[in-house]
């Protein structure tokens, strides 16, 4: 008989079981390829969206969706996990000339805990090394949104009551934030900032939920369903104060059921450190998860 006691609450995820993708329009597919594939070291999906007007970028179990259009900029930053800061910086140095004249830049944290990177269109990314977020070796552990001061308590209440997603109020980079569970080792962070929030430009996130109809009925009750996509998916944009109905934040949520045809799809991840000069047969693919060492 096993006598060891476990804290079973540590394994609770909540209704949102996966933050699958972040969709950002880009002006030029070639420029985006240089940044996301060559610079950050992620993998263009070889099977889906293979033309020149959109591309899907795999990073672990998550993706960026990058259709061509007026560039969109997330109001905040996206957290990324990469295998090595050293390799990342080497790649970023390599693409610096190709991305000159854009908003691309990067800087390493003085304590070497992360590397901040700006995409050619101004999106901010904070790159952490493998092991910073559970067993994730490559992936998207969080998206942090800048929101108005005084709104995070009501935002937390919205996700708890509408989306059945657990969360907490805590400090994030020194500011008060609502941290919402959005999958295994994944969170959505709504962080208060002083001053006005940038105007929303239509970017969206996609999440999978276990209880699909429950949130839908509650969203309907508040007239928040913005799109009836199909039997597997619906969308909403407005996050509101449930007592006053006041708008707190705009963010397009693509909500999918676990019966969605794309749920659980295997995403190919390459090893960006594999080069022609140092090629080793059989090591082209990179694991997105390291073995559990607990």
Would you mind describing this structure in some detail?
The chain is of the alpha+beta class and 294 residues long. It has a single domain, classed as 2,3-Dihydroxybiphenyl 1,2-Dioxygenase, domain 1, CATH 3.10.180.10. Helices cover 14% and strands 34% of the residues. The protein is built from four helices and 16 strands. The strands form two sheets. The chain has an eight-stranded mixed beta sheet with strand order 2-3-4-1-13-16-15-14. The protein has an eight-stranded mixed beta sheet with strand order 6-7-8-5-9-12-11-10, covered by helices on one side. α1 runs antiparallel to α2. It is globular, with a radius of gyration of 19 Å. The model has no long low-confidence stretch (mean pLDDT 93).
Order of helices and strands: EHEEEEHEEEEHEEEEHEEE
| Fourth-tier CATH superfamily name | 2,3-Dihydroxybiphenyl 1,2-Dioxygenase, domain 1
User: Helix amount, in percent?
Assistant: 10-25%
Return the domain count: 1
Content-based structural category: alpha+beta
If strands are numbered along the chain, what order do they take across the biggest sheet?
2-3-4-1-13-16-15-14
Shape field:
globular
Number of helices: 4
The biggest beta sheet reads: 8 strands, mixed
Q: Architecture in CATH?
A: Roll
The N- to C-terminal Cα distance equals: 20 Å
**Rg:** 19 Å
Strand element count:
16
| Poorly predicted regions | none
What is the CATH topology descriptor? 2,3-Dihydroxybiphenyl 1,2-Dioxygenase, domain 1
Oligomer: single chain
Average pLDDT metric: 93
């Amino acid at each position: 008989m096993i006598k060891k006691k476990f804290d079973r609450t540590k394994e609770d995820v909540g209704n949102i079981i996966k933050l699958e993708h972040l969709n950002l329009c880009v002006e030029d597919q070639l420029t985006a390829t240089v940044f996301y594939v060559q610079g950050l070291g992620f993998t263009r999906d070889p099977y889906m969206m293979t033309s020149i007007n959109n591309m899907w970028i795999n990073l672990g179990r998550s993706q960026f969706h990058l259709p061509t259009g007026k560039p969109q900029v997330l109001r905040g930053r996206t957290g990324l996990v990469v295998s090595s800061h050293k390799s990342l910086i080497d790649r970023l140095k390599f693409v610096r000339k190709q991305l000159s004249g854009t908003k691309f830049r990067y800087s390493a944290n003085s304590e070497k805990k992360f590397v901040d990177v700006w995409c050619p269109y101004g999106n901010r990314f904070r790159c952490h090394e493998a092991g910073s977020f559970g067993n994730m070796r490559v992936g998207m552990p969080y998206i942090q949104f800048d929101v108005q001061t005084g709104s995070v308590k009501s935002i937390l209440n919205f996700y708890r009551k509408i989306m059945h997603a657990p969360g907490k109020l805590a400090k994030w980079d020194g500011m008060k934030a609502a941290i919402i569970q959005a999958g295994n080792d994944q969170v959505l962070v709504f962080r208060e900032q002083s001053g006005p929030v940038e105007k929303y430009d239509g970017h969206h996130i996609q999440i999978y939920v276990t209880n699909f109809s429950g949130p839908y009925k509650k969203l309907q009750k508040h007239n928040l369903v913005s799109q009836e996509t199909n039997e597997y998916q619906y969308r909403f944009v407005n996050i509101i104060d449930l007592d006053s109905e006041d708008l707190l934040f705009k963010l397009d949520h693509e909500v999918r059921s676990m019966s969605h045809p794309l749920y659980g799809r295997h995403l190919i991840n390459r090893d960006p450190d594999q080069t022609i000069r140092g090629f080793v047969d059989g090591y082209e693919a990179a694991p997105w998860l390291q073995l559990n060492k607990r």
